Protein backbone atom coordinates (compact mmCIF):
# COMPACT_ATOMS: atom_id res chain seq x y z
CA UNK A 1 0.00 0.00 0.00
CA UNK A 2 1.15 3.55 -0.69
CA UNK A 3 1.87 5.81 2.31
CA UNK A 4 -1.05 8.12 1.54
CA UNK A 5 -3.40 5.13 1.77
CA UNK A 6 -1.93 3.38 4.76
CA UNK A 7 -2.07 6.44 7.04
CA UNK A 8 -5.85 6.29 6.45
CA UNK A 9 -6.36 2.54 6.61
CA UNK A 10 -3.65 0.78 8.66
CA UNK A 11 -5.88 1.08 11.76
CA UNK A 12 -8.89 -0.35 9.91
CA UNK A 13 -9.64 -3.03 12.55
CA UNK A 14 -10.69 -0.29 14.95
CA UNK A 15 -13.12 1.24 12.46
CA UNK A 16 -15.14 -1.98 12.67
CA UNK A 17 -14.80 -2.23 16.45
CA UNK A 18 -15.83 1.39 17.07
CA UNK A 19 -18.45 1.60 14.36
CA UNK A 20 -17.55 5.23 13.74
CA UNK A 21 -15.86 7.07 10.86
CA UNK A 22 -13.91 9.51 13.05
CA UNK A 23 -11.94 7.53 15.66
CA UNK A 24 -13.59 7.12 19.06
CA UNK A 25 -11.65 8.62 21.98
CA UNK A 26 -11.44 6.11 24.81
CA UNK A 27 -11.25 8.59 27.66
CA UNK A 28 -10.90 5.95 30.32
CA UNK A 29 -7.98 5.19 32.61
CA UNK A 30 -9.20 1.66 33.24
CA UNK A 31 -11.20 -1.00 31.39
CA UNK A 32 -13.53 -3.65 32.80
CA UNK A 33 -13.24 -7.39 32.17
CA UNK A 34 -16.31 -9.51 31.36
CA UNK A 35 -15.52 -11.91 34.19
CA UNK A 36 -12.72 -12.79 36.59
CA UNK A 37 -11.15 -15.28 34.17
CA UNK A 38 -10.82 -12.54 31.52
CA UNK A 39 -9.49 -10.16 34.17
CA UNK A 40 -6.77 -12.64 35.12
CA UNK A 41 -5.82 -12.96 31.47
CA UNK A 42 -5.73 -9.15 30.97
CA UNK A 43 -3.66 -8.62 34.10
CA UNK A 44 -0.93 -11.01 33.01
CA UNK A 45 -0.73 -10.12 29.31
CA UNK A 46 1.87 -7.62 28.03
CA UNK A 47 1.04 -4.85 25.54
CA UNK A 48 -2.64 -4.96 26.43
CA UNK A 49 -4.72 -2.20 24.84
CA UNK A 50 -7.71 -2.23 27.21
CA UNK A 51 -6.57 -2.88 30.76
CA UNK A 52 -5.17 0.35 32.19
CA UNK A 53 -4.21 3.36 30.06
CA UNK A 54 -0.60 3.50 31.30
CA UNK A 55 -0.32 -0.01 29.80
CA UNK A 56 -2.16 0.87 26.59
CA UNK A 57 -5.32 2.40 25.15
CA UNK A 58 -7.31 1.73 21.95
CA UNK A 59 -6.35 5.13 20.50
CA UNK A 60 -2.68 4.22 21.10
CA UNK A 61 -3.31 1.01 19.15
CA UNK A 62 -4.43 2.94 16.10
CA UNK A 63 -1.35 5.18 16.18
CA UNK A 64 0.88 2.14 16.68
CA UNK A 65 -0.62 0.34 13.67
CA UNK A 66 0.07 3.31 11.38
CA UNK A 67 3.55 4.04 12.72
CA UNK A 68 4.71 0.42 12.43
CA UNK A 69 3.64 0.46 8.77
CA UNK A 70 5.32 3.81 8.11
CA UNK A 71 8.65 2.72 9.62
CA UNK A 72 8.42 -0.87 8.37
CA UNK A 73 8.78 -2.39 11.85
CA UNK A 74 6.81 -5.25 13.42
CA UNK A 75 5.20 -2.99 15.98
CA UNK A 76 5.36 0.34 17.81
CA UNK A 77 4.77 1.94 21.21
CA UNK A 78 3.56 5.44 22.00
CA UNK A 79 4.77 7.72 24.80
CA UNK A 80 3.90 11.10 26.28
CA UNK A 81 6.80 12.88 24.56
CA UNK A 82 9.79 12.30 22.32
CA UNK A 83 12.07 12.38 25.36
CA UNK A 84 9.75 9.85 26.98
CA UNK A 85 10.40 7.57 24.00
CA UNK A 86 14.18 8.10 24.09
CA UNK A 87 14.63 7.85 27.87
CA UNK A 88 12.38 4.79 28.12
CA UNK A 89 14.18 3.03 25.27
CA UNK A 90 17.62 3.71 26.72
CA UNK A 91 16.66 2.76 30.28
CA UNK A 92 15.08 -0.45 28.99
CA UNK A 93 18.07 -1.54 26.94
CA UNK A 94 21.16 -0.62 28.99
CA UNK A 95 22.35 -1.60 32.48
CA UNK A 96 25.24 -0.69 34.77
CA UNK A 97 28.49 -1.93 33.26
CA UNK A 98 27.31 -1.46 29.68
CA UNK A 99 28.92 0.95 27.23
CA UNK A 100 27.01 3.24 24.86
CA UNK A 101 28.26 5.13 21.79
CA UNK A 102 26.53 8.40 20.94
CA UNK A 103 27.16 11.35 18.60
CA UNK A 104 28.72 14.75 19.27
CA UNK A 105 25.44 16.26 18.07
CA UNK A 106 22.13 15.10 19.42
CA UNK A 107 18.92 16.74 20.48
CA UNK A 108 19.95 18.69 23.61
CA UNK A 109 18.07 16.53 26.12
CA UNK A 110 19.49 13.35 24.58
CA UNK A 111 22.97 14.83 25.02
CA UNK A 112 22.10 15.42 28.69
CA UNK A 113 21.09 11.78 29.09
CA UNK A 114 24.39 10.69 27.55
CA UNK A 115 26.61 13.18 29.38
CA UNK A 116 25.00 13.23 32.78
CA UNK A 117 22.29 10.65 33.38
CA UNK A 118 23.60 7.33 32.06
CA UNK A 119 27.00 7.77 33.78
CA UNK A 120 25.13 8.27 37.09
CA UNK A 121 23.74 4.77 36.66
CA UNK A 122 27.11 3.19 35.87
CA UNK A 123 26.79 3.20 32.09
CA UNK A 124 29.89 4.32 30.19
CA UNK A 125 29.28 6.64 27.23
CA UNK A 126 31.63 7.50 24.36
CA UNK A 127 30.78 10.49 22.21
CA UNK A 128 32.00 10.25 18.61
CA UNK A 129 32.08 12.50 15.54
CA UNK A 130 29.13 11.21 13.58
CA UNK A 131 30.54 11.87 10.13
CA UNK A 132 33.55 9.67 10.86
CA UNK A 133 32.82 5.95 10.55
CA UNK A 134 36.24 5.02 11.88
CA UNK A 135 35.41 6.93 15.09
CA UNK A 136 32.41 4.63 15.67
CA UNK A 137 34.60 1.60 15.02
CA UNK A 138 37.39 2.81 17.29
CA UNK A 139 34.94 3.45 20.12
CA UNK A 140 33.58 -0.13 20.20
CA UNK A 141 34.48 -2.04 23.39
CA UNK A 142 33.67 -5.58 24.51
CA UNK A 143 30.83 -4.19 26.67
CA UNK A 144 29.33 -1.89 24.02
CA UNK A 145 25.61 -2.54 24.15
CA UNK A 146 24.06 0.22 22.09
CA UNK A 147 24.79 2.91 19.51
CA UNK A 148 22.54 5.98 19.45
CA UNK A 149 22.10 7.75 16.12
CA UNK A 150 20.31 10.91 15.09
CA UNK A 151 20.29 12.10 11.50
CA UNK A 152 20.00 14.81 10.31
CA UNK A 153 21.17 16.52 13.51
CA UNK A 154 21.31 20.06 14.85
CA UNK A 155 22.72 22.60 14.29
CA UNK A 156 24.20 22.10 10.79
CA UNK A 157 21.96 19.26 9.58
CA UNK A 158 24.91 16.91 9.61
CA UNK A 159 24.15 13.30 8.61
CA UNK A 160 25.18 9.90 9.90
CA UNK A 161 25.65 7.04 7.43
CA UNK A 162 22.98 4.76 8.91
CA UNK A 163 23.71 1.65 6.82
CA UNK A 164 27.46 1.85 7.47
CA UNK A 165 27.00 2.14 11.25
CA UNK A 166 24.45 -0.68 11.46
CA UNK A 167 26.74 -2.96 9.44
CA UNK A 168 29.48 -2.29 11.95
CA UNK A 169 27.10 -2.80 14.88
CA UNK A 170 25.76 -6.12 13.55
CA UNK A 171 29.32 -7.49 13.37
CA UNK A 172 29.70 -6.83 17.08
CA UNK A 173 26.14 -7.68 18.21
CA UNK A 174 25.40 -4.07 19.20
CA UNK A 175 21.87 -2.64 19.19
CA UNK A 176 21.29 0.53 17.17
CA UNK A 177 18.68 3.12 18.13
CA UNK A 178 17.97 6.02 15.75
CA UNK A 179 16.11 9.26 16.41
CA UNK A 180 14.30 9.79 13.10
CA UNK A 181 12.47 12.97 14.15
CA UNK A 182 14.25 15.38 11.78
CA UNK A 183 13.68 13.17 8.73
CA UNK A 184 10.21 11.68 9.36
CA UNK A 185 9.36 8.16 8.13
CA UNK A 186 8.31 9.65 4.80
CA UNK A 187 11.84 10.81 4.06
CA UNK A 188 13.97 8.15 5.76
CA UNK A 189 13.35 4.62 7.04
CA UNK A 190 16.19 3.67 9.40
CA UNK A 191 14.85 0.15 10.04
CA UNK A 192 15.28 -0.66 6.34
CA UNK A 193 18.94 0.29 6.84
CA UNK A 194 19.39 -2.06 9.80
CA UNK A 195 18.38 0.05 12.82
CA UNK A 196 16.77 -1.97 15.64
CA UNK A 197 14.72 0.78 17.33
CA UNK A 198 13.46 3.94 15.62
CA UNK A 199 12.33 6.71 17.98
CA UNK A 200 10.39 9.87 17.22
CA UNK A 201 9.30 13.06 18.79
CA UNK A 202 5.76 12.90 17.43
CA UNK A 203 5.45 16.47 18.69
CA UNK A 204 7.03 17.50 15.38
CA UNK A 205 5.98 16.24 11.89
CA UNK A 206 3.87 13.30 13.03
CA UNK A 207 1.44 15.41 15.08
CA UNK A 208 2.22 18.26 12.73
CA UNK A 209 0.12 21.03 14.29
CA UNK A 210 2.22 22.21 17.26
CA UNK A 211 -0.54 21.23 19.69
CA UNK A 212 0.66 18.08 21.46
CA UNK A 213 3.79 16.49 22.86
CA UNK A 214 4.07 12.81 22.00
CA UNK A 215 6.63 10.13 21.23
CA UNK A 216 6.76 6.89 19.24
CA UNK A 217 9.05 3.86 19.43
CA UNK A 218 9.07 1.57 16.36
CA UNK A 219 10.71 -1.83 16.71
CA UNK A 220 10.39 -5.65 16.74
CA UNK A 221 7.86 -7.52 18.91
CA UNK A 222 10.64 -8.79 21.19
CA UNK A 223 12.24 -5.42 21.84
CA UNK A 224 8.84 -3.72 22.11
CA UNK A 225 7.86 -6.11 24.89
CA UNK A 226 11.07 -5.32 26.78
CA UNK A 227 10.72 -1.57 26.29
CA UNK A 228 7.02 -1.68 27.18
CA UNK A 229 7.89 -3.36 30.48
CA UNK A 230 10.11 -0.37 31.37
CA UNK A 231 7.56 2.06 29.88
CA UNK A 232 4.88 0.92 32.34
CA UNK A 233 7.23 1.80 35.22
CA UNK A 234 8.55 5.08 33.80
CA UNK A 235 5.02 6.24 33.02
CA UNK A 236 5.52 8.50 30.01
CA UNK A 237 1.88 8.03 29.00
CA UNK A 238 0.18 9.70 26.05
CA UNK A 239 -3.32 10.90 26.98
CA UNK A 240 -6.17 9.47 24.87
CA UNK A 241 -7.01 12.97 23.60
CA UNK A 242 -3.42 13.65 22.52
CA UNK A 243 -3.24 10.22 20.91
CA UNK A 244 -6.37 11.18 18.98
CA UNK A 245 -4.76 14.45 17.84
CA UNK A 246 -1.66 12.52 16.81
CA UNK A 247 -3.85 10.13 14.83
CA UNK A 248 -5.48 13.11 13.12
CA UNK A 249 -2.03 14.51 12.30
CA UNK A 250 -0.86 11.20 10.82
CA UNK A 251 -3.74 11.16 8.32
CA UNK A 252 -2.20 14.11 6.46
CA UNK A 253 1.49 13.38 7.08
CA UNK A 254 2.32 12.32 3.50
CA UNK A 255 0.72 15.37 1.88
CA UNK A 256 2.22 17.71 4.48
CA UNK A 257 5.68 16.24 4.03
CA UNK A 258 5.48 16.56 0.29
CA UNK A 259 4.80 20.30 0.54
CA UNK A 260 7.22 20.84 3.43
CA UNK A 261 10.01 19.09 1.48
CA UNK A 262 9.44 21.18 -1.64
CA UNK A 263 8.97 24.48 0.22
CA UNK A 264 12.15 23.92 2.25
CA UNK A 265 14.29 22.98 -0.75
CA UNK A 266 13.15 26.06 -2.66
CA UNK A 267 13.73 28.33 0.35
CA UNK A 268 17.17 26.80 1.02
CA UNK A 269 18.24 27.45 -2.58
CA UNK A 270 16.83 30.97 -2.37
CA UNK A 271 18.73 31.69 0.85
CA UNK A 272 21.93 30.41 -0.70
CA UNK A 273 21.64 33.11 -3.36
CA UNK A 274 21.29 36.03 -0.93
CA UNK A 275 24.46 37.99 -0.34
CA UNK A 276 23.55 38.79 3.30
CA UNK A 277 23.82 35.08 4.03
CA UNK A 278 27.13 33.45 4.80
CA UNK A 279 26.19 29.78 4.64
CA UNK A 280 23.15 27.54 4.27
CA UNK A 281 22.99 24.02 5.64
CA UNK A 282 20.33 21.77 4.15
CA UNK A 283 20.88 18.12 3.12
CA UNK A 284 18.99 18.72 -0.14
CA UNK A 285 21.47 21.33 -1.33
CA UNK A 286 24.21 20.19 -3.67
CA UNK A 287 26.56 22.29 -1.51
CA UNK A 288 25.82 20.21 1.62
CA UNK A 289 29.03 18.28 2.36
CA UNK A 290 27.06 15.04 2.66
CA UNK A 291 24.61 15.56 -0.19
CA UNK A 292 25.56 12.20 -1.74
CA UNK A 293 24.68 10.43 1.50
CA UNK A 294 21.43 12.41 1.70
CA UNK A 295 20.46 11.15 -1.77
CA UNK A 296 21.23 7.60 -0.63
CA UNK A 297 19.36 7.47 2.67
CA UNK A 298 16.77 10.27 2.55
CA UNK A 299 14.61 8.90 -0.21
CA UNK A 300 11.53 11.11 0.12
CA UNK A 301 13.06 14.52 0.71
CA UNK A 302 15.03 16.46 3.28
CA UNK A 303 12.52 17.86 5.76
CA UNK A 304 11.56 21.30 7.02
CA UNK A 305 14.66 22.43 8.87
CA UNK A 306 17.14 24.78 7.25
CA UNK A 307 20.10 26.11 9.22
CA UNK A 308 21.91 29.20 8.01
CA UNK A 309 24.46 31.72 9.14
CA UNK A 310 23.76 35.38 8.42
CA UNK A 311 26.52 37.92 7.84
CA UNK A 312 26.52 39.68 11.18
CA UNK A 313 27.11 39.29 14.90
CA UNK A 314 24.82 38.05 17.67
CA UNK A 315 22.88 41.35 17.82
CA UNK A 316 22.39 41.49 14.04
CA UNK A 317 21.12 37.92 14.06
CA UNK A 318 18.65 38.87 16.81
CA UNK A 319 17.44 41.80 14.66
CA UNK A 320 16.97 39.56 11.62
CA UNK A 321 14.94 36.97 13.54
CA UNK A 322 12.76 39.71 15.07
CA UNK A 323 12.14 41.25 11.64
CA UNK A 324 10.61 38.07 10.23
CA UNK A 325 6.83 38.46 10.18
CA UNK A 326 5.50 35.11 9.00
CA UNK A 327 7.68 32.67 10.93
CA UNK A 328 6.98 32.78 14.64
CA UNK A 329 10.00 32.98 16.92
CA UNK A 330 9.44 29.67 18.69
CA UNK A 331 11.24 26.38 19.30
CA UNK A 332 10.12 23.12 17.67
CA UNK A 333 9.68 22.18 14.03
CA UNK A 334 7.56 20.22 11.61
CA UNK A 335 4.26 22.01 12.22
CA UNK A 336 1.94 23.51 9.63
CA UNK A 337 3.36 26.96 10.37
CA UNK A 338 6.92 28.19 9.88
CA UNK A 339 8.99 28.69 13.03
CA UNK A 340 12.36 30.32 13.50
CA UNK A 341 14.94 30.49 16.27
CA UNK A 342 18.25 32.20 16.83
CA UNK A 343 20.19 29.02 17.57
CA UNK A 344 22.67 30.48 20.05
CA UNK A 345 19.87 32.17 22.00
CA UNK A 346 18.01 28.87 22.22
CA UNK A 347 20.87 26.88 23.66
CA UNK A 348 22.97 29.27 25.72
CA UNK A 349 20.81 28.75 28.82
CA UNK A 350 21.02 24.98 28.76
CA UNK A 351 24.53 24.26 27.53
CA UNK A 352 27.75 25.48 29.07
CA UNK A 353 30.34 27.22 26.90
CA UNK A 354 32.23 24.02 26.19
CA UNK A 355 29.08 22.11 25.21
CA UNK A 356 28.14 25.00 22.88
CA UNK A 357 31.55 24.69 21.26
CA UNK A 358 31.28 20.90 20.90
CA UNK A 359 27.82 21.29 19.40
CA UNK A 360 29.28 23.86 16.98
CA UNK A 361 26.90 26.77 17.52
CA UNK A 362 28.21 30.14 16.29
CA UNK A 363 26.43 33.37 17.30
CA UNK A 364 25.09 34.10 13.78
CA UNK A 365 23.18 30.84 13.33
CA UNK A 366 19.47 30.70 12.54
CA UNK A 367 17.26 27.61 12.42
CA UNK A 368 14.19 27.91 10.26
CA UNK A 369 11.47 25.25 10.14
CA UNK A 370 9.49 25.72 6.95
CA UNK A 371 5.71 25.30 7.12
CA UNK A 372 2.90 25.12 4.61
CA UNK A 373 2.65 28.82 3.77
CA UNK A 374 2.99 29.72 0.09
CA UNK A 375 6.66 29.70 -0.80
CA UNK A 376 6.51 33.13 -2.46
CA UNK A 377 5.24 34.68 0.79
CA UNK A 378 8.03 33.00 2.76
CA UNK A 379 10.67 34.21 0.31
CA UNK A 380 9.34 37.78 0.42
CA UNK A 381 9.31 37.74 4.22
CA UNK A 382 12.93 36.58 4.44
CA UNK A 383 13.98 39.14 1.85
CA UNK A 384 12.51 42.08 3.79
CA UNK A 385 14.03 40.82 7.07
CA UNK A 386 17.53 40.52 5.57
CA UNK A 387 17.48 44.31 5.06
CA UNK A 388 17.97 44.89 8.82
CA UNK A 389 21.33 43.15 8.84
C1 LIG B 1 11.91 17.60 19.80
C2 LIG B 1 12.88 16.52 19.68
C3 LIG B 1 13.04 15.55 20.69
C4 LIG B 1 12.26 15.62 21.97
O1 LIG B 1 10.89 15.43 21.77
P1 LIG B 1 9.76 15.99 22.76
O2 LIG B 1 8.52 15.53 22.12
O3 LIG B 1 9.92 17.47 22.84
O4 LIG B 1 10.03 15.34 24.09
C5 LIG B 1 13.95 14.54 20.49
N1 LIG B 1 14.70 14.47 19.37
C6 LIG B 1 14.61 15.39 18.39
C7 LIG B 1 15.47 15.27 17.19
C8 LIG B 1 13.69 16.44 18.52
O5 LIG B 1 13.61 17.35 17.54
Second rung of CATH, namely the architecture of the largest domain: 3-Layer(aba) Sandwich
- Which outline best applies? globular
Largest sheet: 7 strands, mixed
Name the bound molecules.
pyridoxal-5'-phosphate
Number of helices: 16
Element order: H for helix, E for strand: HHHHEHEHEHEHEEEHHHEHEHEEHHEH
| CATH level 4 superfamily of the largest domain | Type I PLP-dependent aspartate aminotransferase-like (Major domain)
CATH fold topology of the largest domain: Aspartate Aminotransferase, domain 2
Tell me, rounded to a whole number, the average pLDDT.
96
Strand order of the largest sheet: 1-7-6-5-4-2-3
Q: What is the β-strand count?
A: 12
Explained architecture:
By secondary structure, this protein is of the alpha/beta class. It has 2 domains: 3-251, Type I PLP-dependent aspartate aminotransferase-like (Major domain) (Aspartate Aminotransferase, domain 2, 3-Layer(aba) Sandwich), CATH 3.40.640.10; 253-386, Aspartate Aminotransferase, domain 1, CATH 3.90.1150. The protein contains 16 helices and 12 strands. The chain has helices at 3-9, 12-18, 36-44, 58-71, 82-93, 108-120, 133-139, 162-171, 221-234, 240-251, 253-272, 291-297, 314-323, 343-347, 353-359, 375-386; strands spanning 75-79, 99-103, 124-128, 144-150, 175-179, 197-201, 215-219, 277-281, 305-310, 328-329, 339-342, 365-369. It has a 7-stranded mixed β-sheet with strand order 1-7-6-5-4-2-3, sandwiched between helices. Strands 8-9-12-11-10 form a 5-stranded mixed β-sheet. Helix 8 (162-171) links the parallel strand 4 (144-150) and strand 5. Helix 1 packs antiparallel against helix 4 (58-71) and helix 5 packs across helix 9. The chain is globular, with a radius of gyration of 21 Å. The model has no long low-confidence stretch (mean pLDDT 96). The structure holds pyridoxal-5'-phosphate (PLP). Pyridoxal-5'-phosphate (PLP) binds next to helix 5. Residues 81-83, 107, 150, 179, 181-182, 201, 203-204, 213, 215 line the site of pyridoxal-5'-phosphate.
Amino acid sequence: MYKETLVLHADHDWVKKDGTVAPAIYYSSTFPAQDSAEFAEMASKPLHSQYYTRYGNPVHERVKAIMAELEGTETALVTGSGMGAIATTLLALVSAGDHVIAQTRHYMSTTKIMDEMLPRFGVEVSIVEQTDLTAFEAAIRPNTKLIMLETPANPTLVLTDIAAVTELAKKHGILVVADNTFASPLNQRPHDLGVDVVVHSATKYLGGHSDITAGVICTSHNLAEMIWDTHTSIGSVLSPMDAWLLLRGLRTLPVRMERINSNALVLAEFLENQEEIENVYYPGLVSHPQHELALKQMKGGYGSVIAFAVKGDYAATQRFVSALNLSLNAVSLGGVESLVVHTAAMWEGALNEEQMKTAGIPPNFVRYSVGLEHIEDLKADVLQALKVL
